[in-house]
Write a structure and sequence with these properties.
about 90 residues, alpha/beta, 3 helices, flat
């Protein structure tokens, strides 16, 4: 492996290790009883919202809205993702 390949692979591993879709699930609590409202703002918030949707039980009652920057939207089902030049709630 060349030094360039090693650096590129190291960079990709670091970016993947920081991906909210992989980090958030291990920190999610069990869904509380009743309805949960999910809100947030920031570049990583769409990935965090998607992680909630993917890892909470299908019978959990939740919805919400998050605001992220253009180019960071991800497809969600229950949590609305809005985009803005600067993520203002």
């Amino acid at each position: 492996m060349s030094p360039r390949e090693m650096l590129v692979n190291s960079f990709k591993a670091a970016v993947n290790a920081a991906n909210p879709r992989y980090i958030v699930p291990q920190h999610l609590p069990k869904p509380p009883k009743g309805r949960t409202l999910v809100v947030g703002a920031g570049k990583a918030v769409a990935a965090m919202a998607l992680a909630v949707e993917e890892h909470w039980p299908s019978d959990a009652i939740f919805d919400g809205m998050v605001v992220t920057r253009y180019g960071h939207r991800l497809p969600t089902q229950k949590i609305e993702v809005m985009v803005s030049r600067t993520p203002y709630p």
